[in-house]
Amino acid sequence: MEGREYRSIWYEPAVDQVRIIDQARLPHHFEIRTLATLTEACEAIRAMRVRGAPLIGVTAAFGVYLALRENPAALGEAVSQLQATRPTAVNLRWALDRTARALAREPSDSIAARALQFAIEMADADSACCEAIGEHGSLLLERLWRGKTNQGHPLQVLTHCNAGALATVGWGTALAVIFKVAKKGMPLHVWVDETRPRNQGAALTCWELRRAGIEHSLIVDSAAGHVLSRGMVDVCITGSDRVSAAGDVCNKIGTYPLALAARDNQVPFYAALPVSTIDFDWPSMESPIPIEERGAGEVSMASGIGADGGEIAIRQYPESSPIRNFAFDVTPARLVSGIVTEHGVIDANGESLAELAGG
Ligand code: MRU
Predict the structure, then answer these.
(1) Which of 88, 145, 323, 337 could bridge 268 with an S-S bond, Cβ 3.0-4.6 Å?
(2) Sign of torsion, CA 147 174 255 274?
(3) For 205-219, how does the pLDDT look when each residue is reduced to its tens digit (9 = 90+)?
């Protein structure tokens, strides 16, 4: 943007400030926001100014720093407040557990500085990890494209929600694969599911693809089955918020019906994610995990900009009918063709995942 490369979260050492791209303002406004306190970090996660499993984790690590900067004795309180912000993405717990372990024996005069260093390292590691996911996934997509009978046509990829640079510190997971494929010069077209009700596909994925100059088309979620059934998709690839030890993939609501339609049409369905998204304490989807339910207003209201460029919010439906706004679903491992990680592409089953457990 404006000749500068941004990450979705970063630290400005000259002014001792943690900054984010405010994703609740995209795509109409590109705004940078400073997180000055633990309360502001929690609010940013809850209000989805930062969102996407890996980014939520890294923001929590910076949130711990902000808390300790004010009060070096606040580690326990910071961890429990941050943990309560969103329930489904396991990267939040992963990041907080690691941060708490790293700081457990740190003296109070150095704990804030150590927390900051730890958060910065976690952010750098996330970006490197996502780039590796992109690299491994691009080899997979390259193979699919070479196997296409008509290589003159672009590889048709369908994605759901936003698993892009905005959902991580940089690169993304599913979109990292797409960015790498595009960089290699392979012809590519991306179908972007709108992703009701928060519209992360329409608002964020399209924004990222537009900026990267990648050909794409936005479709409503319920059109995914149609394009799959007409042979207009070669591969589906999404991110994930939590993967079970058996390979079941929890992701944004609507992923499960997408995977079903993909299987029915013999189109491979992949999930791309860092190992930090695998919850080795979640044996399989037979044991339920917390699925976030968000406010009814996200379904009943719509907001955007009006003809005069001003922001407007409109009520689409009365809330007189009860609304359930489930934010995630779980796709069984049997519908997942493979999992793209920073270590390579693996099968979605307990054996393959167990090999990553020690990593
Ligand atoms: O509710 P969100 O926007 O945080 O949900 C995000 C997703 O479901 C992403 O697909 C997932 O976190 C993977 S992001 C690399």
Answers:
(1) 337
(2) positive
(3) 999 999 999 999 999
